[in-house]
């Protein structure tokens, strides 16, 4: 109020640049937690127990059971089921980082595993009880991580036979000890060296200077790279200038 009895209104001054920065910070913080259109996960496998696990039961510091769990789960964090390599069936549930697995053993007994995440959803550990010979004790299960998919880099090459050019390829993934390379077509136009294939994953292909053919043409040599489980075809174009 003023001295003459009139009411005055005090305006709040807003620092707009500062307010905008604050709003942007809140938005970015929210995205970093929830992700763009999805849920933020601290680990890629969070809530996902699909796959094969190595299970070990220990009673009084002595291993009493070693088996593999094959688990099928429809969605992350949802109940799951499966079987073991020693003949049991299983079912289980997840509650955040807590897990309960019940093994229905072939002799009619049940073994109940209760545990928590230990290593970024690649390992669980806890205690167990059993109505059968497993007794009671502690348990741990480690996710079985398979090899990365077989790949070859580069995926193709072009070589001049008149210059006797050489290309070096690098194979990764799969089973390195089982790597092999053969020419599945027109192999007489190149020389393949696999000296370091099963050690460094490298092999070389050299175009023969005596390649036959009409000048200005080219021929594709298809290479088959395999680790016996997976095969990849790599085309090498041999040109005849």
Please describe what this structure looks like.
By secondary structure, the chain is mainly beta. Strands 1-2-3-4-5-6-7-8 form an 8-stranded antiparallel barrel. Mean pLDDT is 85; it is low at 22-38. The protein has helices spanning 16-34, 197-200; strands at 51-59, 62-73, 80-84, 89-95, 98-104, 110-117, 123-130, 136-143, 151-153, 157-160, 166-172, 180-183, 190-193, 202-207, 217-226, 231-240. Helices cover 10% and strands 46% of the residues.
Concise overview:
By secondary structure, this protein is mostly beta strands. It has helices spanning 16-34, 197-200; strands at 51-59, 62-73, 80-84, 89-95, 98-104, 110-117, 123-130, 136-143, 151-153, 157-160, 166-172, 180-183, 190-193, 202-207, 217-226, 231-240.
Termini separation: 97 Å
- Low-confidence regions: 22-38
Helix content: under 10%
Count of separate DSSP helical elements: 2
**What characteristic shape results from the CA principal axes?**
elongated
Average pLDDT metric: 85
| Helix/strand class | mainly beta
Q: Could you give the order of strands across the largest sheet?
A: 1-2-3-4-5-6-7-8
Element-by-element helix/strand order:
HEEEEEEEEEEEEEHEEE
What characterizes the major β-sheet?
8 strands, antiparallel, barrel
Compute the CA-based radius of gyration.
31 Å
What percent of residues are in strands? Answer: over 45%
| Record field, number of beta strands | 16
């Amino acid at each position: 109020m003023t001295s003459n009895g009139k009411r005055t209104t005090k305006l709040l001054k807003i620092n707009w640049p500062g307010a905008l920065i604050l709003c942007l910070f809140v938005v970015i913080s929210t995205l970093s937690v929830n992700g763009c259109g999805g849920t933020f996960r601290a680990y890629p496998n969070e809530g996902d127990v699909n796959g094969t696990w190595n299970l070990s039961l220990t009673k009084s510091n002595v291993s009493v059971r070693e088996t593999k769990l094959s688990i099928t789960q429809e969605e992350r964090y949802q109940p799951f089921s499966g079987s073991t390599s020693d003949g049991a069936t299983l079912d289980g549930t997840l509650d955040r980082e807590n897990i309960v697995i019940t093994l229905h053993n072939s002799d009619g007994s049940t073994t109940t595993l209760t545990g928590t995440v230990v290593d970024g959803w690649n390992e669980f550990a806890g205690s167990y009880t059993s109505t059968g010979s497993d007794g009671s004790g502690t348990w741990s299960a480690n996710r079985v991580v398979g090899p990365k998919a077989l790949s070859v880099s580069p995926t193709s090459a072009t070589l001049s036979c008149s210059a006797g050019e050489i290309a070096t390829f690098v194979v990764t993934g799969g089973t390195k000890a089982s790597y092999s390379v053969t020419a599945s077509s027109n192999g007489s136009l190149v020389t393949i060296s696999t000296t370091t294939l099963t050690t460094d994953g490298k092999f070389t292909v050299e175009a023969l200077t005596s390649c036959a053919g009409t000048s200005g043409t080219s021929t594709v040599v298809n290479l088959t790279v395999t680790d016996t489980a997976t095969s990849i075809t790599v085309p090498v174009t041999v040109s005849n200038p």
